[in-house]
Design brief:
Layout: H1 2-27, E1 40-44, H2 46-49, E2 60-71, E3 74-79, E4 82-89, E5 93-95, E6 105-109, E7 129-133
Length: about 140
């Protein structure tokens, strides 16, 4: 008699847990960051968010690779050939975009507006513009 009640209770628990999981899964927002194995990602440094001493430090940690997709937005990360023990959620990851930065183009600003001529700037480059103020320009 006791075994029958235990069996009924177990089925009620399973049914209740299934309903709770369905309700919870329906409330979750859709995963926006879908990563695949081998993708290059940056990991957010959550500790830096809570410390004022690192206010100007980088908020993203070094380059990692997606080693395994665990589902529900969880990922195993790899650094070179070492697999990290902790898992990371997709909300704490962002795609790594390699930028091939050209040499900076230095524009000199003086008293004459004729020094900066847009025709002298190459059109095929998107240079990083560094502005240098010339204080001794007397021409």
């Amino acid at each position: 008699m006791l075994e029958g009640k235990q069996q009924i209770a177990a089925t009620h628990i399973e049914h209740s847990q299934a309903q709770q999981k369905e309700w919870h899964d329906n409330k979750l927002p859709p995963v926006t960051n879908e990563f695949k194995i081998g993708n290059k990602v940056l990991l957010h440094r959550t500790k830096a968010k809570k410390q004022w001493s690192g206010k100007f430090e980088n908020k993203w940690d070094r380059l990692f690779f997606i080693h395994k997709v665990l589902g529900n937005g969880l990922y195993k990360l790899r650094l070179n050939n070492k697999i990290l023990a902790k898992v990371a959620h997709g909300d704490h990851l962002k795609h790594y975009n390699f930028r091939n930065n050209p040499e900076p183009l230095i524009l000199q600003i003086g008293t004459h507006s004729s020094l900066i001529n847009p025709e002298n700037i190459p059109q095929n480059l998107e240079p990083i513009v560094v502005i240098e103020q010339l204080s001794n320009l007397n021409t």
